[in-house]
Amino acid sequence: MSAFWNAWVWAITLAVILGCSWLLLATRKSEPHKEATEETLGHSFDGIEEYDNPLPGWWFQMFVATVIFGIAYLGLYGLANVKGFYGWSSVGQYEEEMAHAEEVYKPVFAKYAAMSIEDLQSQPDGLKIGQRMFANNCSLCHGATGAGAHGFPNLTDGDWLYGGAPATIKQTIANGRQGAMPAWGPVLGEEGVRDVTSYVLSLSGAEHDADMAARGKQQFQALCTACHGADGKGTQALGAPNLTDNTWLYGGSFEQISHTIRTGRNGVMPAHKDLLSDDKITLIAAYVYSLSNK
Prior knowledge:
Blueprint: H1 3-29, E1 40-45, E2 48-51, H2 57-77, E3 78-79, E4 82-83, H3 90-113, H4 117-120, H5 124-137, H6 139-142, H7 166-175, E5 177-181, H8 185-203, H9 210-223, H10 225-228, H11 254-263, E6 265-269, H12 278-292
Antiparallel strand pairs: 1-2, 3-4, 5-6
Helix pairs in contact: 1-2, 3-12, 5-12, 7-12, 8-9, 8-11
């Protein structure tokens, strides 16, 4: 947390404590009656009148105790970047709990550490562990079943942007991926975008305009083959998708493909090597591999 937000949190917290204290004391001081009275506030609700009695002493004392507790809590546990008397912090507690969990579950992971991803396919308990870690770390993008979503690859089929070999899957999880599709709209113009779109559709046998595809083929060969190959089957080393099948990361309609060509795409798969141990990444990779190799 920056120094500004640290000061901001402290200012807001202290302002609330001081404001509540002032309101409590000012209200107490301004009470016209210090003891119970038969006088009312002069208005009624459905025949019910409200006495002008002071706040009960025990209630006032509870409010005061609450303010004192808040100040004591800040002193003991701190706030924002400032640690209290105990030296406690949420980050410290998290790290302590994680270290304890690592120690407890270390024997469990050690059991599978020496196995290859291929050997782990015959270890249902190991795959279940990988499945649970996948749910915690990967399902937000790839879905609970790994079926993916718009812009996030389906992990249950045999179509892989960077390759589906066990070692490649583990490398992808550990180091992440950066997929970039340049925007060709300024180069091709709108007519050129539509022509290349028609040619891309023709590669997978989809419905297309033959004349537009013929024009788009020349532009595709000049601009796109460096990544997608002359035959459009893609290059896994570059993460360039195969355009000859019916698997589309961002959609395979004319409008969706046109948008991709016109504006480009920029997909990021975050690296997990700093978040997960090698043993855990191996188990997740084994589970991912099992999704398309049943």
